[in-house]
């Protein structure tokens, strides 16, 4: 996947999908490295803030965090 494709995936992913990937991906996953990784974290934090606190907690529990 190119950098542009990774950024597009991150931007279009739901908070659920971002959290699930964060929980189960390998530590060397390119989505979590360098500028793409920084973007991932920023988007994930922004999407979490858009949710009600109980919704973010529910997602985490569903995923098994």
Strand/helix succession: HHHH
State the helical fraction. Answer: over 70%
Rg (CA only): 12 Å
Strand content: under 5%
Mean residue pLDDT: 94
Q: How far is the N terminus from the C terminus?
A: 27 Å
Tally of separate domains: 1
* Net shape: globular
Low-confidence spans: pLDDT under 50, at least 5 residues?
none
Number of strands: 0
Major sheet summary line:
none
* Total count of helical runs of at least 4 residues: 4
Structural class: mainly alpha
Protein topology:
Elements lengths: L2 H10 L2 H10 L9 H16 L3 H11 L2
Helix pairs in contact: 1-3, 2-4
Task: Name a few traits of the molecule.
65 residues, globular
How would you portray this structure in words?
With 65 residues, the protein is an all-alpha fold. It has one domain. The protein is built from four helices and no strands. It has helices at 3-12, 15-24, 34-49, 53-63. α1 packs parallel to α3 and α2 (15-24) crosses α4 (53-63). The N and C termini lie far apart (27 Å). The mean pLDDT is 94.
Describe what is shown at a glance.
This protein is mostly helical.
